[in-house]
Amino acid sequence: MFQTELNHFLQSFESQWLTLLMNGISNLGYAPFYVLMVVILAFGVDFKRGFLLLQAIFLSAILVNTAKNYFQLPRPLDVDNSLRSMGEYYNDPNTQFKRQGATHFWAFPPTEVVQYYRLKKLNSYGFPSGHVAVTLTFWLSIGLLFGYRWVWWVAGFMSVAMPLSRMYLGKHFLADVLGGLGIALVASMFFYEILHRRQLFDKYLAWQRFKDPQTTQLQGFFAFLLIVPLLNCFNFLGDIGLSFQWLGTNVAFMWVAWWGFPANQALLWQRALRVTIGLVVYISMEVLFRTLNTQLAITANHWVWVEKFVTNFMLIGLTIVLCLQAKLYHPSVTTKV
User: Fold this and answer.
1) Cβ–Cβ under 8 Å, residues 282 and 35
2) What H or E segment, with its residue span, contains residue 144?
3) If you average pLDDT over residues 184-196, what whole number do you get?
4) What is the pLDDT of residues 286-299, one digit of tens each?
5) pLDDT value at position 300?
6) Beta bridge partners of 263
7) Whole-number mean pLDDT of the chain?
8) Omega before 128 within 30 of 0, i.e. cis
């Protein structure tokens, strides 16, 4: 599964339009697409379901980063310079190795090649595929949480298209995309199964604020929202910046829950404006921190963690406040600003 023969086979069909298509599919696996879609679903459709979707995405991304840094396995383009690099690549495309993938289906890449890249410290390791994991987590979770039947067709298509695109572009082995698929199944089912198995999903959706009776029944879920992201900030194998993003999102959610959730019901134009405000808040925070980083020449890791935390906290908290003030959300009986 760590052989490059499949990558060579897929690249044998290379054409300009196919490469363009595969890069387009692959681009759907990057963060900007998910930020856009989560903002649309959370502020335009259903805030609580959108929040659970975001939890699944964070869990998937955390598992991927931890596994990548634990296994530290190279990508096909790192072990075979006869493969073509099509589009942006994370590591040095000028590898000295040629056809140094696994010698048979169940084998790993040669030990000396793996050790070489572990000592060299690649910018991005291969196993498992983050694109496959997060993409399938996203679409499967939408199907489970929102109940849209048409999403299952999209999930089925992306479960084939994304792995093929990553292998065609030389970014991943077959083993990488299968590992990503496994993580997607775990992450997408995790919250859904826990809430449904304990018959808490309806209580979660009906929950309005902390003083409601449902709070006691959901306390294990709340503990997870805060404790797991916080503990993951000390995970030396993970992406600490991603952990602070997760923590900032969850702290903002708990803050909104303290005051009371606004009602989702609204006219189409109100929903569209809520989404627009969310995107403006997110982009504004990104621009603000990039400007501060440039003007003050800040490079310290702890500042990056603050940036990640604050950006995601403001995306949730400030967007809700602004939408309530603009009467784009109808306050629930208990909601205060």
Assistant:
1) yes
2) helix 130-146
3) 83
4) 999 888 888 877 66
5) 67
6) 330
7) 88
8) yes
What is the rounded CA–CA span in Å between residue 261 and residue 149?
A: 27
Token pair for 25: 């599919």
What is the residue extent of each domain of the chain? 1-197, 210-337
CA 148 to CA 216: how far, in whole Å? 30
Question: For residues 37 and 163, what is the distance between their CA atoms, to the nearest angstrom?
Answer: 21
Backbone angles phi, psi at 240, to 5 degrees: -65, -35
CA dist 276 and 34 (Å) reads 15
Q: Smallest Cα–Cα separation from 86: which of 4, 157, 168?
A: 168
pLDDT at 74 over 50: yes
Q: How far is Cα 254 from Cα 210, in angstroms, rounded to an integer?
A: 9
The answer to whether 1 and 102 have CB atoms below 8 angstroms apart is yes
Q: Can you read off the two tokens belonging to residue 56? A: 């699944």
CA distances for 135 relative to 101, 129, 144, 241, angstroms: 26, 10, 14, 20
> At 93, is the secondary structure helix, strand, or coil?
coil
Taking the C-alpha atoms of residue 274 and residue 307, their distance in angstroms, rounded to an integer, is: 23
pTM comes to: 0.91
Can you say how many angstroms the Cα of residue 266 is from the centroid of all Cα atoms in its chain? 28
Q: Is the pLDDT of residue 337 over 50?
A: no
The whole-number average pLDDT for the span 154-180 is 95
* Count of CB atoms situated within 10 Å of the CB of 241: 16
Q: How confident is the model at residue 149 (pLDDT cuts 50, 70, 90)?
A: confident
SS3 of 156-179: the string is HHHHHHHHHHHHHCCCCCHHHHHH
Which single residue is written with the structure tokens 């992306």? 158
In this structure, is the dihedral angle defined by the CA atoms of residues 295, 30, 143 and 194, taken in order, positive or negative?
negative
DSSP helix/strand/coil, 102: coil
Distance CA 146, CA 144 (A): 6
Contact 60, 183 (CB under 8 A): yes
